[in-house]
Amino acid sequence: MNEARTFSPHVAEQAVQWWLELQEGALDPRQQQAWQRWLHADGEHRRAWEHIQKVNQQFAGLPGPLAQATVGSPYSPGRRRALKTLLLLGMAGATTLALRQQHWLPPLVADYRSPLGQRRQLQLDDGSRINLNTTSAVDVRFDAGQRLIRLLEGEIMLTAGADARPLRISTDQGLVTADRAQVNVRQLPGSTQVQALRGAVAIQPTGLQDGPLRLAGGQQVEFDRQRFTAARPLDANSGAWVDGMLIAAHMRLGDFLTEVGRYRRGQLDCDTSVANLLLSGSFPLGDTEKILDSLEAALPVKVRRFTRYWVTVQARV
């Protein structure tokens, strides 16, 4: 098997988080067990871990100042960030094909990016406004004929400015035209979610020869390169992230934790025994630890923190 296909970028990220955790000192017995469970849960995990050891060894051969910034200096938040960046780039050496397929490399050099757990607002030359959600990246290309925003990863809310040129958002699956609309667009694995918050939009998948789908304001849809899901009304959480909120209205706990996990580092798991519990409420995204703590008061669950980067929500015993 080609080495480029032996582990995914997501697993590479997990391996780097565990490596950094180990660099901060010896794990306590519970943390050690959690790390061992992760390591032996899948052959993909073991391959990623073996490769990260090779990447770390290569740091010893870096030029003097760079080596000192990685393997030879006192531990600090700045050094942690440098190590993580270099390790991920080193992992990318073994997963170049996978990284390109999943668009890790383009976001690194995007025109505009927002880090994990943070949001960003941009004002464009035409008067349009873009809000970037956590871990999002876009390229902006305006010319005489059109205004094009390429969503490389993550999620954006676009409020169109008045301009005669068509305004389009490009994703992996197709084009969304939003000339006079406010639209939320999220790049999902293998599909795109579009929410027309105000005004109508047109959606054209890349592999579909028929005309575009017209999506009315107040509706949402998902599409891939060949097909659409049925349009349905916006849900309570549509666009709430712009105001720093996560709104749950009878949301499955498993789905809720998937959303919370977008705003924090590490692994956030939900035991299958509690994944279908329903949750309602409004939760500020600025402090995910408080969100997790609140679950124990609202539901019959226990939040187990093996490390800062490995948290599991399970049934309360």
What does this entry look like structurally?
This protein is 32% helix and 32% strand. The chain is α+β, with helices and mostly antiparallel strands and 317 residues long. The protein folds into three domains: 3-102, no CATH class; 112-233, Jelly Rolls, CATH 2.60.120.1440; 244-315, Phage tail protein beta-alpha-beta fold, CATH 3.55.50. The strands form four sheets. The protein has a seven-stranded mixed β-sheet. The longest helix is centred in the N-terminal third of the chain and has 18 residues, at 77-94. The protein is globular.
Task: Summarize this entry quickly.
The chain is an alpha+beta fold and 317 residues long.
N/C terminus separation: 44 Å
Number of strands: 19
Text of the CATH class of the largest domain: Mainly Beta
Fraction of residues in β-strands: 25-35%
The CATH architecture of the largest domain can be named as: Sandwich
Q: Based on helices, strands and strand pairing, what is the structural class?
A: alpha+beta
Helical element count?
A: 9
Q: Per the principal axes of the C-alpha atoms, what is the gross shape?
A: globular
Share of residues in helices: 25-40%
Given as residue ranges, the uncertain stretches (5+ residues, pLDDT < 50) are 1-5, 62-82, 94-105
The major sheet is characterized as: 7 strands, mixed
Overall radius of gyration: 21 Å
Query: Which strands sit side by side, in order, in the main sheet?
Result: 1-4-5-7-8-11-12
CATH topology of the largest domain: Jelly Rolls
Q: Tell me the series of helices and strands, N- to C-terminal.
A: HHHHHHHEEEEEEEEEEEEEEEHEEHEE
Number of domains: 3
Tell me, rounded to a whole number, the average pLDDT: 83
